[in-house]
Amino acid sequence: MPEQSQFPIRAKSCRSVVAALLFSLSDLAAVLPSTDVAGQVPMVTLSRKRILTNSLHFSPPFFLLLVTSFVWSQSSQPEKPVSQRTYGQFGTQSETVHVEGTPKLDAHVNPLRVNVDLALVSVAVTDEMNHAVIGLKKDAFTLFENGIEQEIQQFSTEDGPISVGLILDFSKSMSNKMEAQRAAVDAFFQNANPDDDYFVITVSDHPRMVAARTQSIHSIQSALGELTPAGSTALLDAIYLGANQMRNAHYQRRALLIISDGGDNHSRYKLKDVKAMIRESDIEAYAIGLFDTALFKTYEEFMGRKWLSQITDATGGRTVTVDNLAGLPDAAASISWELRNHYVLGYRPGSAESSNERRKIKVCVTGQAGQNALRAYYRQRVDIFR
User: Which candidate, 78, 115, 268, 369, has a CA 20 to 30 Å from the CA of 19?
Assistant: First the structure.
């Protein structure tokens, strides 16, 4: 057996020896004769408690031995992790994610990298009603890199299969919104590509994986129908878990859809941790925010809209705010349609001054005459590697 695994056993054994030695000393003292004050009459003290107490009071070497043994035994204990949280899963497709100690962030989880020959920028376009706009031509787009206009040398649209992660809020604060959320999931699936695959994470006190990498929409709907809302909202933990799950996604295009009131109040990870991780990942994050119009709100509820927007904007996605639950299914259907109608702009990056350089991207889109203002959503930074 390795020495490391024997070390705690040896420490325990040594403590037992020290304890036995102390009791042996007290037993010996209990039978040793002593003299009275006059030095004439021998006495035998049979009280172990009395002799041990006297020894502790009058014998400095004995007290030093006891303190040294205690300190040494405490230092022999192996170090323990600062904290540990386990996220379980339902069903047979179970997996456990352990989080120990300080959160360890991978700064390059699926980074958006391009070679120097051609950089591809995926762009979604919506109108002022948040509806996806399709049918635009190449000349409707203008692309800038670090403030310098670039020639768009490749232009196409994409509607290939996507790996999608659904993060659904099932905390107690969503109790009056469950039917609308289930209807939104159904509407999202109506525009799905038959080859898409999915996983589903629900949010309450802890994030839980309800379905892991499945193409069965029916099984997802059945599993969600059996759940009831309860507990607090560990939304940031769920987003972090979803981004990690995407590292093993089947398709190159990956997207997260978050449906929540945004009121996180039980996460271990902080907003800055999740933003730093998801910003560097090759994921498009979308969110539908269900924000109450109540006058008095908690800090988390008040900041929910801002937090969701900061997370989705960093990936080139967006957050849709729904004040009326009746509009939730339409918002989900619009995002599903938008995911499958992206424009891809290809350009040749300028010469890189170093082997690893980050460029800032800006895309402007102009509609046809008489068309309302359009807005482009895209990842605003690209990493150039040589």
Answer: 78
Q: Is 181 helix (H, G, I), strand (E, B) or coil?
A: helix
The helix (H) or strand (E) run that includes residue 199 is: strand 197-203
pLDDT tens for the 386 residues of the chain, in order = 444 444 444 444 444 444 444 444 444 344 444 444 344 444 433 444 444 444 444 455 555 555 555 544 444 444 433 333 333 333 333 333 333 333 333 333 334 445 557 888 999 999 888 888 989 999 999 999 999 999 999 999 987 899 999 999 999 988 989 999 999 999 999 988 889 999 999 999 999 999 988 989 999 999 999 999 999 999 999 999 999 999 889 998 999 999 998 678 899 999 999 988 887 788 999 999 987 666 666 667 678 888 899 999 889 899 999 988 999 999 999 999 999 899 999 999 877 565 567 789 999 998 876 567 899 999 887 766 55
Direct distance between the N- and C-terminal alpha carbons of the chain, in angstroms, rounded to an integer: 48
In angstroms, rounded to a whole number, what is the distance separating the alpha carbons of residues 335 and 340? 9
- Using CA atoms, how far residue 187 sits from 39, 210, 380, in Å, is 101, 19, 29
Cα(323)–Cα(30) distance, integer angstroms: 83
With contact defined as beta carbons under 8 Å apart, do 166 and 199 qualify? Answer: yes
Cα Rg for the chain, rounded, in angstroms? 32
CA 73 to chain centroid, in Å, comes to 38
Residue 280 one-letter amino acid: E
> Is-contact 156 344, C-beta < 8 A?
yes
CB atoms within 10 A of CB 339: 25
**Between the CA of residue 167 and those of 8, 40, 121, 206, what are the distances in Å?**
43, 89, 26, 12
